[in-house]
Amino acid sequence: MMMQDNLTAGTRQIGPVVMELRNITLRFGGVVAIKDISFDIRQGEIRAIIGPNGAGKSSMLNVISGFYRPQEGEVIFRGVPRGPMKPFQVARLGIARTFQNIALFEGMTVLDNIMTGRLNRMKAGFLSQALWWGRAEREETENRAAVERIIDFLEIQNIRKTPVGRLPYGLKKRVELARALAAEPQLLLLDEPMAGMNVEEKEDMSRFILDVNDEFGTTICLIEHDMGVVMDLSDRVVVMDYGRKIGDGTPAEVRGNQAVIDAYLGVAHD
Amino acid sequence: MDQFVFAAEVVLNGLMTGVMYALVALGFVLIFKASGVFNYAQGVLALFAAMTLVSIQNGQVPFAHLINAALGTQIHHFGWTVPAALAIALTALVMVGLAFLIEKLVLQHLVGQEPIILFMATIGLAYFLEGLGDVMWGADIKTLDVGLPQGISDGIEAATAQWFGYGFFIDRLDLWATLIAVLLVAALVAFAQYTKQGRAMRAVADDHQAALSVGISLRFIWVMVWSIAGFVALVAGIMWGTKSGVQFSLSLIALKALPVLMLGGFTSIPGAIVGGLIIGVGEKLFEFTIGPMVGGATETWFAYVLALIFLVFRPQGLFGERIIERV
Questions:
Q1: CB-based contact, A85 to chain B, within 8 Å
Q2: β-pairing verdict for A46-50 and A219-224
């Protein structure tokens, strides 16, 4: 893959910290899923969370997106500590996400699915919508235009009107990304965007992720299994194992970290 | 020729009864679509709406019996009457309030439960609302009149008499009910397809987790859907209440909505309408043609037998989503 060149092209700007996680601990009953983890995500970067199965990566993403509520620790978004929030409130703050097992509206068309991503950008009153007049008409046109740009960008023009339920897995993943992008998020969370894909699909998806980051300047935090992909894509990597953070840094730093090597090669724990 | 004209009248009447069935079925479909709950209380909701409407119109004091028993007073009426339009608006507000309370007190505590649990909760809700209606407004049979025209339409009778030599008996109330139902359905379809809230409603119906992730508040949508279902119940209550009086049996029309739903599919608004029409026309025609041979009264069972046949051969209904089990 030749993305490395893209990354270092110098057009990208890594800004200040957007999201800071401070001493997060998450328990399910007696099971500790995340133990005292802190890290941050900077504006405009691609931040990866990696680790073996069951390391707590998805739980971490669910904490950021409000689906899980940690027992301890603070989630600080744009400098403001976030109180306990429902997932829909987090989404309204500008944090969009995709799911490991794909959560799309199967009965709706691709276009309608992506349009739901813009629901919170529509402000028109009920009456104005009912009469299709004034603000509502303007908004619908604007939102439609924005969605069409994303559709072009992700090269899914030809399935625009297809009900999502009929699409193959790889395309569903792409539609889910499109829906998240439609919200024009401040922070985009991708839960295993390449899980279950073949090599070709993986390359496509990697390219889209890089392009999104590059062209829209979207801050991305992603979880991935495949070490190779992560190393090519990301600016900085957090490594988790058994709910703990065992490494944090650039791909090169992480690759040289003994604890990470052990976790991946499966050294016996005492 | 005579037989044919007579049959045409039967079909016409059947179509209009069908619209009324569809109206009740619509309330079920809305809630089922958005929350996957089969709302057993929909019929009682219609009864409750009709009761509230009549009582507001007559200026009745809510909970009069309780108040009198507790305070030893003898109040029953405020001493005013409320114009029909205002009373309908007030009742609609009551239904919205009720939707809010149902979400707050019942649904919110059952999030993530099995559909059967939610179904049981709506059975409880049905009995509770039935009792609440009686305690609030009294259990006597009430006459509802919001100014809808009633009685046989003389114009249609005269016109058809001239054309076919046989005057059709068409109730003007049925005509109005049809018109209003058509408008209501058109409005609901437009709402679901073209408004932001409608899109959010469809999204919630499809996948809760995904809906949350795009910033949709499930609670808001549920209150909204139950409010709309309450409003549909109000319209159905007005129509059926005007036709046959506001009394307990009004809540049983919900049972007629069941075969309609089995025919049309639980998730389809057009299905509810077509299902209603098929049942309405079907039962009238069956009574007209086969009825005399089996001693009549086929209307009481025809719809259920038809639904049963559908369950065997096409369990998802005419318009329902295909049931595909993936292994």
A1: no
A2: parallel
Residue percentage of chain A with pLDDT more than 70: 89
Q: In this structure, are residues B266 and B320 in contact, taking their beta carbons and an 8 Å threshold?
A: yes
Contact flag B213-A91 (C-beta cutoff 8 Å): yes
- Domains annotated for chain B, with CATH where assigned, are 2-313 (1.10.3470)
The CA–CA distances, whole Å, from B122 to B68, B94, B115, B132, B183 equal 31, 19, 11, 15, 28
Closest chain A residue by Cα to residue B320: A107
pLDDT of residue A8: 44
Query: Which B residues 175-214 touch A at CB under 8 Å?
Result: 190-191, 194-197, 199-200, 202-203, 205-207, 209-214
Test B212 with A91 for CB contact under 8 angstroms.
yes
Looking at residue A269, the DSSP 8-state letter turns out to be P
For the domain spanning A13-94+185-265, the CATH number is: 3.40.50.300
Residue A95 has pLDDT above 90, yes or no: yes
Write down the pLDDT at residue B267.
79
Phi, psi of B300 (to 5 degrees): -75, -25
Residues B136-185 pLDDT 10s: 998 888 888 888 888 888 888 888 888 877 778 888 888 888 888 888 88
Structure tokens at B246: 């506001």
Domain boundaries, chain A: 13-94+185-265
Mean pLDDT of chain A: 87
Q: Which ipTM value was assigned to this complex?
A: 0.84
